[in-house]
């Protein structure tokens, strides 16, 4: 099974796609031959996978790399983007995408730069550890530990305002941000906003085929470009392969998974931060992301949900050509600016 449709766009999806994306895709990757999947090679290429569509990003005041404690106190890398204005600043914490097994501090660097400059906030991008070398849900565990540290120590270490925090991310990173919002509520860590794009939500290990999933988008976009059913299952298998197949270690690892494999199974949906969820019309994950937004609304939370028509899962990386990507970045930055700079009212 191919993990990505690099060959010409499948006819079932073609009528739904923006012609601008279709031309961009056809000009750059449609004729790329598929080959064996090599995780190590894919990792080296992942952060430039959509660079053919990525536009220039503005210059921040300063960018530097640092470390924070992750799960169990192990140090993990972060990249800090500072505005040109004097601190202390509000802080937006980003968790990159990559299906739990890919991605690094370069993956969403252009988005982090835009947010830093346009929202006038410090952005801290977190390089959580990846599967399968580390057992799922290490990405969530590392990211929440990073949030805890930034909230407790960030004023001194990063010159940020710990009462003005937002979270965000794309794809698996969006999932991390949403789950960390639940954990932050339970730990009494105040969040002003959570703003995510095309988040993963459901546990697709339950489904043998796209037809088994309860989401129409999973069937309609089974053969979508950039993220299809085959690639989703490849990522999902990578996640579950990170857990021991038997023995006491497996029991401990599975107990750590809790409800994290399916965010719709969260124990509570009340008392969460204001949330912005952007989905893509031509993304298999579209409907589960929108269902999660509905659960938040039912829980009494303030939610903004918008679907960008005509574009696939990673559209926000193609802001040089796609108006949808430009809007995603600008709207995300505007929401962060508005919510992090408003007077504290709680």
From TrEMBL:
<dbReference type="InterPro" id="IPR029058">
    <property type="entry name" value="AB_hydrolase_fold"/>
</dbReference>
<dbReference type="InterPro" id="IPR050466">
    <property type="entry name" value="Carboxylest/Gibb_receptor"/>
</dbReference>
<protein>
    <recommendedName>
        <fullName>Alpha/beta hydrolase fold-3 domain-containing protein</fullName>
    </recommendedName>
</protein>
<feature type="domain" description="Alpha/beta hydrolase fold-3">
    <location>
        <begin position="94"/>
        <end position="316"/>
    </location>
</feature>
<dbReference type="InterPro" id="IPR013094">
    <property type="entry name" value="AB_hydrolase_3"/>
</dbReference>
<dbReference type="GO" id="GO:0017000">
    <property type="term" value="P:antibiotic biosynthetic process"/>
</dbReference>
<dbReference type="GO" id="GO:0072330">
    <property type="term" value="P:monocarboxylic acid biosynthetic process"/>
</dbReference>
<dbReference type="GO" id="GO:0016787">
    <property type="term" value="F:hydrolase activity"/>
</dbReference>
<dbReference type="Pfam" id="PF07859">
    <property type="entry name" value="Abhydrolase_3"/>
</dbReference>
């Amino acid at each position: 099974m191919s993990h990505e449709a690099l060959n010409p766009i499948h006819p079932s999806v073609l009528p739904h796609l923006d012609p601008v994306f279709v031309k961009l895709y056809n000009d750059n990757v449609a004729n790329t031959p598929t080959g064996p999947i090599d995780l190590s090679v894919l990792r080296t290429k992942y952060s430039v996978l959509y660079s053919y569509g990525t536009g220039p990003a503005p210059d921040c005041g300063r960018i530097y790399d640092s470390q924070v404690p992750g799960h169990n106190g192990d140090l993990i890398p972060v990249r800090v983007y500072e505005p040109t204005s004097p601190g202390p600043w509000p802080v937006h914490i980003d968790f990159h995408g990559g299906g739990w097994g890919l991605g690094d501090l370069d993956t969403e660097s252009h988005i982090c730069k835009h947010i830093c400059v346009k929202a006038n906030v410090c952005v801290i991008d977190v390089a959580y550890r990846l599967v399968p070398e580390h057992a799922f849900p290490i990405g969530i565990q590392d990211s929440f530990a990073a949030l805890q540290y930034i909230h407790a120590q960030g004023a001194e270490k990063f010159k940020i305002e710990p009462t003005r925090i937002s979270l965000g991310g794309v794809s698996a990173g969006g999932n991390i941000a949403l789950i960390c919002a639940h954990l932050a509520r339970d730990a009494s860590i105040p969040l002003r906003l959570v703003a995510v794009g095309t988040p993963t939500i459901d546990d697709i290990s339950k489904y043998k085929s796209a037809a088994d999933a309860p989401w129409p988008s999973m069937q309609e976009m089974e053969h979508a470009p950039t993220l299809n059913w085959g690639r989703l299952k490849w990522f999902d298998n990578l996640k579950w392969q990170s857990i021991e197949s038997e023995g006491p270690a497996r029991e401990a690892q599975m107990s750590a998974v809790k409800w994290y494999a399916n965010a719709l199974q969260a124990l509570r949906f009340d008392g969460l931060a204001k949330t912005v969820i952007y989905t893509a019309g031509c993304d298999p994950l579209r409907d589960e992301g929108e269902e999660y937004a509905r659960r938040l609304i039912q829980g009494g939370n303030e939610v903004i949900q918008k679907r960008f028509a005509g574009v696939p899962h990673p559209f926000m990386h193609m802001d040089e050509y796609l108006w949808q990507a430009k809007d995603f970045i600008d709207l995300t930055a505007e929401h962060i600016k508005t919510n992090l700079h408003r007077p504290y009212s709680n």
